Amino acid sequence: MALVDPRPEQDLAAVLARRVAHCPRKPWIVTARKSWSYEEIETRSGLLARGMTGLGIRAGDTVLVMLPDIADYVVVWCALSKFGGVEVPVNVHYRGNLLAYLVNDSLAETILIDDRFLSRLEDVQDDLKQLKRVVVYSDAGNYGPGLADRLSRNFEILSYPDLVAETGYDGPGPAYNDLMGVLYTSGTTGPSKGVTMTHAHAYEYARGVTEMLELDENDIYGVHLPLFHIAGQFATVYASCIAGATAVLATAFSPGRYWEEIRTYRITCTFLLGAMANFLYRQPRTERDFDNPLDRVLMVPLIPEVEDFRKRYGCRVSTTWGGTEMNCPTRSGFDLADNRSCGRVLEDRYEVRIVDSMDEEVPDGTPGEALVRTKIPWITTNGYWNHPEWTAGLFRNQWIHTGDMLARDRDGNLYFVDRIRDAIRRRGENISSMEVENEINTHPAVLECAVVPVDSRDTEQEVMAVVVLRDGEQVEPEALVRHLETRMAYFMVPRYIDIVDTLPKTPTGKIRKFVLREKGVTETTWDRVAAGVALNR
Length: 537
Fold this sequence. Notes:
Rossmann fold, Luciferase, domain 3, 26 strands, alpha/beta, 15 helices, 5-stranded parallel beta sheet, GMP Synthetase, Chain A, domain 3, single chain
């Protein structure tokens, strides 16, 4: 079988140029405010690319982007793609030490940031080592001179309009194997890791989704995932561009208004995390459930009730398995093997092995770590940004070690079993247990803690913290939550807190987390949701 070559269009700039040549006035991005055609995005991104290069940003330079889900985020992303700038998306919920770490680790000298997040940058500005320039995006056009003055002590401050040139960019573009982005994905036993993505890698990720959804130019694609996520940016917006479809940047996902948005915008296909699908499925049934234009759903992972979901809402469902590092090596098609499989290996592009701790293959039906290798160059990561030691671990024995435990049946269907390490997956967010533990340990009453995943009835997992207090100290779980919500993204704040006398440990002093995972939630565990404690997002 001939291999599929990802290089004809090479990069986002080339894909967008082709769409402009074919359908310039067709809407690409639709928001509640207005519709943006392919030609408008092309023109605006060209002016911005010219402005960025005029400012001294060069091909290969990392640029932090901390923006909400707006059309201009797409403009910024396309502008960087035109001249080879390397986008580093920043989770808009980050703050404190996590934000400072990402900014420093990225080695970026420039951040493009919405004015509503500036106070978070101010909080950590004295800890930032490489950052030199802050470009402020403001819908209102007024973010307060006091804040700008305080930031100007350490950085050059520019406004977004200052970057927009009068003529478009006409310089050289990137090669398909040049770096397009660095996407930070939470670590398991250490800090978040910056996954490098080439243009070919990003293109293959997006094009794979067009195949999984059978996406074409007649489709209207609903985007309910944030643009700082790989699924929000590549699996939806980029995939729409490749197919010549229209992408609707809907409001943040809400089960209560989801179907009205589907009907209002006439959305025909979408991407649903398993937790999102589960929330929708658990809504009260109505006579209008079947009355909607949604035809195709990429659901990752599948919910157990997927067959009833399909019948109830009148849609087809496919699924996959993958990750930022290894792309998406599997496909299920719309003819699902069952309600648990994540598809079969796409053998013209990928190889997948299921192995034991010595990287020896295990028999069918036996769970093991999934290793991935490609038959086409550049369509998986080159490694972790700025950390060759982590890259060496990722590629040991010349295979990508995914950290995912899978099993394969005799027919070649793959089944996700669990994460091998300590990362927590909550509603589409990857959370490093170590990062949460570090912030809990900043509380003066805490001696030590362990953070583990517990199963969630909403699919995926919830965060549980098992905490040991200092002698003579007391702290209520809600007070600990209030301490944490100012220091980390809301989705990282533990739902469950268990205050105990000691943690189970090995003879060498390491915490035996598997004991805590197996124990899970008990009668002594405090539940933030049950207690009615809401977080300030």
